[in-house]
Amino acid sequence: MTGDPRGDLTEGVAQSTFKLPEIPEEERTPLVVSLLEIIHYQQEMIQGLKDEVARLKEQKTKPKLRPSALNKKGSKKRKPDKRPGSKKRNKLESLEIHDRINVSPEEPVPVNSRFKGYQTYTVQDLVIAPRNTVYRLERWRTPDGKILKGKLPDGISGHFGATLTSFILYQYYHAHVTQPLLWEQLVDLGVDISVGQLNRIITEGNERFHEEKAEILRVGLEVSSYVNVDDTGARHRGKNGYCTHIGNELFAYFESTGSKSRRNFLQILRQGHKDFVLSEPGLELMGLQKMPKGHLEQLRAHLGRRFEDDEAWQEFLLSLGITKSRHVRIATEGALLGSVLDHGVNPKLIVVSDDAGQFNLLILLHALCWIHAERLLAKLVGFNENHRNDLAQVRGQIWDLYQILKLYKQNPNDTLAAEIRERYDFIFTQKTSYETLNQLLTRLNKNKSELLLVLEHPELPLHNNLSEGDVREYVKKRKISGSTRSDDGRRSRDSFASLKKTCRKLGVSFWHYLKDRVSGLYRIEPLSELIRQRAQEAFG
Asked: How many Å apart are CA 327 and CA 26, to the nearest integer?
């Protein structure tokens, strides 16, 4: 007998399928049911790990869970009458013509032939070539010894023109071309530029863009009744960080920081200011977070007081004996909220998020994304037929409710609102045979006011897809170019991502915007003013 018999035994156990014994219905206590579902969840996790191993070995895996169909319910695909783009239009209506060339027939035109006009044939092309200019600045010495010298034309700063600089910014921030490839492209086109100078154009000297980005947030928060928010990873200097997105249909704003706490979110809403303000809304926020009454009374005695910076604020807390980290955090968040409201943010601003805790400011209205709520149910997989049937039934009920909510947004009325509330209560308080599903429904039922806030504010979106779409643009850049290494680079990445997405929302060509700003013409209105105009058109 050769070989190790334990190897055959282990292989047999590995290949066998583990099965729980049948448990009679009368013995299925709530604890037993919960344990069975935990075991089933662990089996699903193990299967997922097996699928990942199979994928790495380029073997077949189980099909992935389908994405949520919450936003597709009731919409049937209809075969289009014509292929996309086949509708006839006048393609030359807005096309600028630079040259007109008359072309005669190759054969000699016989005598007495009649001219029948022209058949036009338009050819679009692009001129890509370096254009180098030497400015010879005259120098004169006046009789009194003073030197007079010619001045460079407006819009020229440095040895690279406005079009070239705009092209570099456009390729890097809009087309996501990496710096090495962009440098190689420029050299191939005949541009004499060093790697260091290219990096400086991309990351340095962009103060005018940073200022316009800051104005986007200020005006956007001022004119908006709600904002979508989300965040994503943004490593910086080899350390983990986060990029927070704030925006809606009018603007997009990105800010990268080292954390994604509520304090960090409030600091972004503070729009660059450094002060702390003790206000009634701030004290209310502290109370909701269970700040000790003694500390609340101490802080209330200083209501309305302003502190210039973090150092002054920390000294003040120390003087009051507020030293525990939790109490310091709560007090700081409340003072930051006071500063945010003091600097013009709408106190009735509604924050739409995916239920991340850092975006829930407790006293500002908070709306939740239905897609994220339903996605929690989509992750469940029942381990018997009854569970699967109950899960499918509940998800169908949520889909139907979602469609009614969409109808309500189009035509808000009290009758439909009452029906929606009644349906919501029925769906999220029902008991099924699937204990994990019951627990999840109970959890979602606690978010009723946030999920049904749209009944009071029909202008609110039912999902956070807008924010996720905007963030996807940032993620694409991060995947291509990697993390940022300098503060200027991180700041520039945030600014140009904000300006690019805002231009797209406002219908402004990002290429024309860059050329306008780099050349110093400023013929395109400030984006903040365009946001204000668009808000007035939409809301009056």
From this structure: 50
